[in-house]
Amino acid sequence: MTSDLHKPGAALAAGTSADPWATPPADPDGETYYLNMGPQHPSMHGVLRLLLELRGEEIVKCEPIIGYAHRAHEKMAENRNYMMFLPNTSRVDYLSGMIYNIAYCQAVEKMLAIEVPERAEHIRVIVCELNRVSSHLLWFGTFLLDLGGITPFLYSFDDREQILSILDRVTGSRLTYCYGRFGGVTEDVDKKFLDETTAFLARLRGRMAEYHALVTDNVIFRSRCEGVGVIDRETAIEYGVTGPTLRAAGVPYDVRRAEPYGIYDRFEFDIPTASGADNLARYYVRVAEMEQSMRIIEQAIAKIPDGPIMPEKALKRFKPDVGEHYFAVESARGQFGIYIVSDGSDVPFRIKLRTPSFSNLACMPDVLRGTMVADTIAILGSIDIVLPEVDR
Amino acid sequence: MLKTLSDLVPNVFLAMLLAAAAIMAFATVNALFLVWLERKVSARMQRRYGPTVVGPFGMFQTLVDVVKLLSKQLISPKDIDKPLYHLAPIVVFVPVVLGLSLFPIDKSFALVDTNVGLVLVFAFAGMGFIAIFMAGWGSNNKYALLGAMRAVAQNIAYEIPLILAALAVTMIARSMRIADIVEAQGSFPYILVQPIGALIYYISAVAETNRAPFDIPEAESELVAGFHTEYSGMRFALFFLAEYTNMVIVSMVATSLFLGGYKGPLLPGPVWFFGKVYFLIFVMLWLRWTFPRLRFDQLMTFAWKVLIPLALANLLVTATVLKVMS
Amino acid sequence: MSDDSPQRSESLQRLYDDKLVVQAEVRDHAQGGFHESCIAAAAALPEIAAKLREDGFYLEMLTCLDRRQTGEEMALIYTFNRFDRAHRLRVESPIAAVAEWRGPAPAPLKGAAAKKKAEADKAKAEAAAARAAAGEPDPDPAAEGASIASVFRSADWYEREVYDMYGVTFAGHPDLKRILLPEDADFHALLKDFGRIDEAETTLDDQRPS
Amino acid sequence: MALNGAGKGPELKEAAQPALIKKAQGAPGTLSEREEAQLMAEAEPFVRFHLLEDLLNAARANSLWPLTFGLACCAIEMMAAGAAKYDLDRFGAGVFRPSARQADVMIFAGTISRKMGPVIKALWDQMPSPKWAIAMGGCTIDGGPFKYPNQYAIYEGADKLVPVDVYIPGCPPRPEALINGILELQNKIKAGRRFKPSTHEGPIPIAKAERTNAPTGRKVKG
User: Fold this and answer.
1) Do residue C207 and residue D148 have CB atoms under 8 angstroms apart?
2) Is residue B64 within 8 Å of D92, Cβ to Cβ?
3) pLDDT over 70 for what percent of chain D?
């Protein structure tokens, strides 16, 4: 059961794993061949590896091979106390790190029944939704990059930088935020933050019109997206697909509505859905979601009260009661669930991270069958996966 | 009267040597300039600056890149098809250089002048894809092979509308000598007579040069680097050089056939000629940095079901009109 | 097990009536995030999953708990949920220990904690005895899980992950192999006696910046 | 380094480097002056083509094409560094090549898992020399936030797999830091694989950049 592989350098000395390029034997008829896509491939979103069996350019079989970004988050959680796991959370999914970070705080707060001050709740909503917008913007760019359009990628990064610098001022980091604390947030926001956010929303609205002109109405873009990569409701249930990918199949499932957490039940927002279940539908849903996030941010800014951002008594060391808790939030990619089991000590007995990309990626073998190589990239781009989140 | 190099230089070998030197110099300098231009133009379209550090406005950036590529290790992967792999970068470069020599840059000067100039240009252009297929096949890499297969299919498909569009022009000009075609364009360029032909030609030309949105043979996000995935150092640079020179050739053809070549008021011929050529190249860059990439089957559908019928119809209409008018 | 209020959902009641699950209880969602919970034998899982699939559930998560240190069995935790409304159903399935516990014995509890633990254990044992008396014995820990990948294809990867991390095998899985760790790894990473921090030469405190 | 006595020279030079540093700090047990001079002399190539070599090094330094290769979080910052606001292309390092055969520098952007290790070694071998490696972020320096006793999943540092030229701390490092790292690497290349004291004014040194970006009166709570 045990191995010395965990000793530093042992695996290296042993020559590490089996042949990393081992592919199955060729088809005896010579009709199909295997193509090893990844782990280093410009469109594999990091380190995904797809083992494709191709006939010409048509995919006969596809096997995603994951684990190249496995970083032992869950093992680390069992080895350190609740507070010390906090920095890990935003590194699970670095694109919506804030949402994950806050979600973990909220899960632990639920366990300990901690009241969060109103102001902190509003700040959390604002930063989480900003993070969602930035994640969708990055998706927008990389999706177009996968389709071969390079300029939209740089445009969206330009806008994303605005969000990052807004969040950077308050949280101190650009990507891997550790802003949440059990009971509140680390840092209060000032008027400048709110003003900058309002200004950014106005700017982004103007920019969205530009994006629509550049991308949405583009003939080539539409022909690459329409009817490609259909993930319908049945497939979604089969694989537990959530998030924009599910909503593009016409299912209005959003954890913010289904099981409202934080103060999301106080905001007015729609759950955008589309009916096509294809790449274009997912594109529409994400773009519409950015709009809804902006609505939520505006409401939160309008309503944000004055007051403390942490409870009176700050939590240092604590031991939750024996029990188990499941806490779900809507991340930018779908339902992110944290399953915490406590054995009464200050170290979690088990933290299972139910990450949306894991399920969303699992349906690839079904969805990719019969498509072309170029579509593979497009579909993979459209479902928006983050590999370290899949591998944890 | 049109003068060629052999008219100016009596010794034929000296003329050949001079022509080769001139073309090589032009091709290299032009590629250096174009790559820099592309990086600058794309940067400006993308709210960036592009190269700024090396030289004024970063102009020596590509020169530095080439020097670096020259000094890189040349890797020959295992299990390659050696002759094909090693020959491909040279073969890809030869035809584009030959093609360059055929264009009259002024009323009175062209390096080489033949009465089948247009045919030669297309013949040379066709050779480039043999080189790409050699590279793809010889590399023993599946991405390269896929890229090569795409390149060949694409080339065959787009060469037809390209030539059909040019054919309509030769019918009007009643010559295949490029200088004659330019001269035949009198006071107005053929783009006014042949607007559809010009459009078909330009679209096909972009596809011929493997540039986005038709860059599927080297589609970066799909096939890593396509047919030149396994090429390093100067061999890779030669593919790059060929691609950019190819852009110039198709733009020169377009300029000569549709835009009146060196003709233009006030300014001297070469200025007009190169001005038009670089404008067309700029449009190519513009297209590349604006559009996403087509899918392979869409690309083929577009060629066979849209461009070729359209080009045939254009040819038919042109022929009918010419017959009626004569 | 008394059928007291709050009312079980139809789906869970059906499973309970078919004698597929025991300890079918309604939980407070606001408290623990689960709407309902039950315990089932591993072999019954495919049937349960099929029934839930008919009712419109999807497999939300599958994981495993390694409780060998305290002398208990391991357990597979399935959660099912619905898209039309939130309804998180937790199904626990006991699994026999995949290997003998090699780590240290649990630290003895002291004072209030020990008392609390003893009370909880006692209550648990009494409840189990009561259920056994009522003809509803708790399922025995199974030697291996039963794959539900034929019902929910998402289970394919989840089961591979549990196999990878805990070494629990699943009968009927189409292709049970490692998913996250390298294929030649010879350990199961999330077992509590693997890679224990207290066995390491340095402790976390040594690594903290002073 | 083809002209530089291929291979052996640089390693020796780098070996000599720590000794020099120790010497400067007055640490005991360092080399004597004579030994040091001898070592440095051995490290010198047999024949030097100064001008040509400097020219090549300058070209190499100003044309560092990174491999399109992201491992985790840092990859996003690497992308950001290449994108509109930071624009690595200014320094000639913005040409991200997808194929290892055409890349000059491998930027390790993210955690290197045990499963990824062999792949990285293969990629490194595919790159034509001269080639360089930049370890971007804590994970590639020593495991960073994922380092803990008995960590089973990752390599604690990129230098366990390939020789690293420049280390950039941060989790993830800001794009400015990556740019600074690239400039440092340029300095190293220009100086013939040896670090000269930094001469470039740089866009903004990292420390200053962080200071200007940090909110005033920031206190970390909790």
Assistant:
1) yes
2) yes
3) 67
Positive or negative, the CA dihedral C155, C157, C161, C163 is positive
pLDDT, one tens digit per residue, over C115-133 is 777 887 888 788 778 777 7
Residue bearing tokens 């559809």: B196
In 3D, which of B258, B261, B113 has the Cα closest to residue B195? B258
Domain ranges of chain A: 2-65, 73-391
Q: Which of A233, A325, A349 sits opposite C32 (nearest CB)?
A: A325
Please give the domain boundaries of chain C with CATH numbers for all domains: 10-102+141-191 (3.30.460.80)
Phi (first) and psi of residue C47, to 5 degrees: -70, -45
Alpha helices in B209-307 (DSSP H): 220-223, 233-258, 269-288, 296-301
Q: Report yes or no on chains B and A touching (3+ CB pairs under 8 A).
A: yes
> With an 8 Å Cβ cutoff, are A147 and B221 in contact?
yes
DSSP string, A354-377: E-HHHHHHHTHHHHHTT-BHHHHH
Cα–Cα distance, D143 to D155 (Å, whole number): 7
Chain C, chain D: beta-carbon pairs less than 8 Å apart = 29
Chains that touch C (3 or more CB pairs under 8 A): A, D
Q: Which of A36, A57, A220 is the closest to B292 by Cβ?
A: A220
Which CATH number is D58-194 given?
A: 3.40.50.12280
Residue whose tokens read 């199961």: C188
Q: Coil, helix or strand for A153?
A: helix
Give the residue from chain C lying closest to D117, CA to CA.
C182
Rounded to a whole number of angstroms, the distance from the CA of A324 to the nearest CA of chain C is: 6
Query: Looking at A20-24, A64-68, C110-114, which range is the least confident one?
Result: A20-24
How many angstroms separate the CA of residue B149 from the nearest CA in chain A?
10
pLDDT digits (tens, 9 = 90+) for C186-199: 888 888 877 766 65
Identify the chains in contact with B, defined as 3+ C-beta pairs within 8 A.
Answer: A, D
Cβ-Cβ pairs closer than 8 A, A with C, add up to: 134
The pLDDT of residue A13 is 35
Pairing of strands D105-109, C170-171: unpaired
Q: Give the ipTM.
A: 0.84
Strand stretches in chain D, DSSP E:
105-109, 132-136, 166-168
Window A:337-356, CB contacts with C under 8 Å: 337, 339, 341, 344, 349-350, 352, 354
pTM value is 0.83
Helix A118-147 with A191-211: angle, nearest 10 deg: 30
Q: Nearest by CB to D87, which of B49, B220, B225? A: B49
Pick the CATH number of A73-391 from 3.30.1120.10, 1.10.645.10, 3.40.50.1460, 3.40.50.720: 1.10.645.10
Q: Is D155 helix (H, G, I), strand (E, B) or coil?
A: coil
Q: Looking at CA atoms only, how far is residue C85 from chain A in angstroms?
A: 6
CB of A305 within 8 Å of any CB in chain C?
A: no
- Residue A368: what pLDDT? 86
Give the gyration radius of chain D's Cα atoms.
19
Q: How far apart are CA C174 and CA D186, in angstroms?
A: 53
Query: CB atoms < 10 A from the CB of A295, how many?
Result: 16
Contact A150 B42 (CB under 8 A): yes
Please say whether the dihedral angle defined by the alpha carbons of residues B174, B176, B177 and B179, taken in this order, is positive or negative. Answer: positive
Cis peptide, bond prior to residue A152, ω within 30 of zero: no
For the record, the structure tokens of B112 come out as: 């080489």
Residue in this structure with the two tokens 């075609």, named with its chain if needed: B181
Residues 309 through 338 of chain A touching chain C, CB cutoff 8 Å = 322-328, 335, 337
Which residue reads 């009465």 in tokens?
B115
For C114, other C-beta atoms within 10 Å of its C-beta total 11
Q: Which of A296, A299, A354 is nearest to A325 (CA)?
A: A354
